[in-house]
Amino acid sequence: KCVVVASGYFNPLHYGHVSYLQRAREAGTSLIVIVNNDQQTAKKLGSPEAFQTTGIPARDRVRLVRSLACVDAAIEAVDEDESVALTIRMLHPDVFANGGKQHATPKEAEVCQELGIKMIDGLGIEMLLLQPFTQHYDWGKPKTSSAVAALTGQHMPLTPSTSIKPYAELWMGDHPSGPSKARMPGDSVAACLMSTLKSSPGLLGKKLAEEAQLPFLLKVLSIEKALSIQAHPDRALAAKLHQERPDVYKDRNHKPEIAIALTDFEALCGFRPIAELLELADAAPELASIIGPEAMRQLRSASASGDEAEIAAALKQAYSTMMRSDEEVVSSHLRALVGRASAPPPASGHKDNVAKAFMLVRRLFEQFGADIGIFSVFFLNFVEMKIGECLYMPQNTPHAYLSGDIVECMACSDNVVRGGLTLKYKDLDVLCEMLVYKGAPPPIIKPEVLEEGVKLYAHRELDEFQVTHLKMSAGSSRRYCFSGQGPALGFAFTGRGIMKVSGETTQLESGVVFLLAAGVDADITAEEELSCFVACCPPHYFHTHRPEVLKRMPTR
Asked: What amino acid positions are annotated as catalytic residues?
């Protein structure tokens, strides 16, 4: 058994109180409510005369609270000051729960610490406003063209005083490498979201409350220059890498992710069908040379046989050989390749896939010089996406973002194994061993249209997250519950509107980021055409999946 004690004046009892008490009941097996007595209420109102005018007698407040289905017992406080410390000592519960913005008073905290009573704050909180964390990596866009800058209010015309600092990523969540700050609507003071969730775990729902962590991370990326050739490990490999090298691999979680295009978006993702790779090798002798004759023979043999195991072995041999090539060999081959890619095409022109590969060779050489990662444009699918289209990066899948603005959602991890197009640490041995060597078209997620203006980006392999795109015309309204069992984290991308949660109104406009508690219904009205993206856990997460817990690193 776990006895929970909650307290309050309840003068009068309103919906916020009911929500708080329901959450308190979920924190244990029984709930006892302490109702502040008439003397305490008169002090809070300022005088006995004020109590006579606006106060409700404690006996009536006790009866009202006792009538709630979530309440097992309600009693009047025996204390004379503003606390309920003496009443807590008398009851000696397992948990003392506070609602909303309330916290234990010093006397209450002292009693709880003395008696070993667990304290929980923030029950009944249904919405938080977040200040996301901005990352300024060198591959980001300038503020004049960056969606990240626009969402943070930093988008502006170029002037002599304009900062040249690139705007690359906007992190929305509680990952320790870039946690958001959180505040209640109407408050001006924000606290770290990590600590807020620890002190107010009830808003995450029953399953996530124990660890008090979000299982997903939502981002916006603005990409001017290519990101590294990389892949994200599966759970088993992530745990192994974290144990062996925690300074490089910061957590033990996997990191499947999706990218939803906000503008035209380019990326490399997954190995091409082997026939395409061979066609490109014929058009670029430098690629065939750096792979070597034996690996090329294996590729042609595998292509002819069509055997998946043989194709996987041939791809692994060719890609691993290429990635481990000597720097001088890479440099000489790349310079010859760039010369070929820059030469006028034959009279008949290059085939489309060859022309695009040569275009990428020229662009990436300009960005990175003689980097081995440039040869990956021949091995990996080149993806060109329009607004609203979605790319899926499964675990152990090689990929690189090349240009554009995207919404990205992933399992909450920052594990990256890099292999090229970067000055950061390249873990080639791990990368070449971990990859899924399967030649196939790029993995695309087609959104499901749930109803007019509501698209769902989800995949059966994605346990921790799904993303809803809500698009509303001016003047329209709707009520929506994004997740009945877990929190929902979202942001307004464009437009203006209002969101009402339990009667409390919040203005929605570009860059407003919000976290809704589990099971909350939000009433949304668009004052002009409104576009929002909202991430939450899919329903099957709460039935089949046990959350992977990150080993939290210190907040910087």
From this structure: 418
